[in-house]
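Final report, closing paragraph on structural work. Over the funding period we assembled a curated collection of sequence-structure pairs, and we close with a single example.
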Amino acid sequence: MTFASTWNNLLSECEALEDGATLITPLSEQRIRITDVQEHRIIVRFVDSEKSRPLQREQFETLIDRVRSGIAAFELDRLPPEADPYPAVLSLHPRFEIDKQAGTLRETDDPTPSQFVRGGSSNSDEERTEPDLAVYSDTLLLIDALERYDVSELEDLETASLVNLYTLLSDVQRDADNLRGDVTNVLLDRIHHDQPVYGQFGSIQRTGRTYRSLRDEEEVLETLDEAGIPRERVTSVDSTKVDEALEVTEVAPTDVYEIEEREYVRKAEVDEEEKETRLQGLKDRLSATKGTEAEELRDEIEELEERINDLTSFRSGVEV
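Its predicted structure, as stored:
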């Protein structure tokens, strides 16, 4: 790809950035924002000092030539300190990637998102549509319940109110975990490196986990026998076989098990009809209200996106 094509693609990526998006320079970790995109230069402003600086097209060409001419990735510490913003902006191009851990900049064959951009604020004037998602409806109901109940003093709440809270929290947890799993699958297809990728509310990082399961029992024992490990050293009591033995003997479970009783609460059923009625009431209230009251209610619903992270901060087996 010629430099002219690379430069035009980079300008397009800069113009497509969200308002207020922040770039992090890889060496000094200064925050910069792109304020203007011109034919021969890109203007950036340092967030902390509020000083503006033009980044020239010729300097980008020199940096790209260095990256392409080297056999290995270009080492960022070879740049002078004043050139730190250049690789940060260049990383917006889908073919250039910064490896912060290795301190290098390289050109890639596969497009990758910049891990040094943090999202800006979205346009609040954009028309919003109600998503057909269970997590949206259940979270809206949960917010309504949290505003009606004084959860700072749970002991003072009636049992029915606690049941409502538990049911809605359980539903939101399930819905959020399901949606997070779907989002995870899409992210895994897009992110092909182990560096953090930033959004407006945080960052994520691709990682891996190794799971092990034993092969067939006889195969394992034979392998260990050949290595001089006696079978008795690796075999242990199997609870399933113990249970089978208890069924045909007069041995009491307490003779072979340490038994501890633990009580917990679980969701028995959900009144979907009542939930739908309450949810429809909230929607009707929004449609019918006007003026200041309507604006306040709309603000409450728009804040749902910001508060959902706190309301659904449950641990799950799905990890990015």
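Residues 130-320 form one domain. The chain has a mean pLDDT of 82. We thank the funder for supporting this effort.
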